[in-house]
Amino acid sequence: MKAFLLAAGLGTRLRPITNKIPKCLVKIHNQPLLYYWLKLCEKYGVNEVIINLHYLPEKVKEFLEKNQTAVRLKTVYEEELFGSGGTIFKNKDFVKGEESFFIFYADNLTNVNLDKIKSFHKTHNGFLTMGLFMTNSPENCGIAELDGNKRIIDFVEKPKKPKSNLANAGIYLARQEIFSFFPNDNKLIDFGVDILPKLVNKMYGYLISEYLIDIGTMENYEKAQKEWKGL
């Protein structure tokens, strides 16, 4: 199985930590986020991963060269950021022939059971399965509304009047059909803003019960240091 690991974030809210390293190399318990993602992929049979790079790409390559993994890796450098959706679309040939593939946002720390997501995805047969978590600040997240069959009937990025507290976890299992919803131009594409709303009624939401946190802020980074129990 294959996955996109979106790791080009600047990590501006984690400065000064990210002055010298990219966000995906920020350490939790003496190991960078990227280490945990690769171990998670190994654990659940995701054996090929493409990683996009932008800020301090040589640091990421150096880490990958020094740390052996069973996962086959491909890195792609973006001189100018394509956006989360742009990276996926420009590298869609990487998943050519795959019935389904994962998309991960590398700024999250999680020990989610990917086998459970695979099973849910197969049962519900949507174009995309979105991992969800319960949030206390829905106005700062992408928010999904579900029907009784877990179908996503509404999705809004950072809504002023949230309809639920089910937030996008940045973990997806997608099918080839999603590519028909991407624009055929070279503009920056935000997956959450430009693509996911088009998939309403064609995607399903899976509530993640395992540990998950976005370490994009100093507060959450410090919280993760205290709470993380590993994979």
Description:
This protein has 231 residues and is α/β, with parallel strands linked by helices. It has one domain: Spore Coat Polysaccharide Biosynthesis Protein SpsA, Chain A (Alpha-Beta Complex), CATH 3.90.550. It has 6 helices and 13 strands. It has helices spanning 33-43, 57-66, 83-90, 114-124, 191-195, 218-227; strands at 2-6, 27-28, 31-32, 48-53, 72-77, 100-105, 108-110, 128-134, 142-146, 152-157, 166-175, 203-207, 212-214. Strands 1, 4, 5, 6, 8, 9, 10, 11 and 12 form a 9-stranded mixed β-sheet that branches. The longest helix is centred in the first third of the chain and has 11 residues, at 33-43. It is globular.
Span between termini: 20 Å
CATH H-level superfamily title: Spore Coat Polysaccharide Biosynthesis Protein SpsA, Chain A
In the CATH hierarchy, the architecture is Alpha-Beta Complex
Average pLDDT, to the nearest integer?
95
Radius of gyration: 17 Å
What series of H and E elements makes up the topology? Answer: EEEHEHEHEEHEEEEHEEH
Roughly how much helix do the residues carry, as a percent range?
10-25%
% residues in beta strands: 25-35%
Question: How many β strands by DSSP?
Answer: 13
Mind describing the biggest β-sheet? 9 strands, mixed
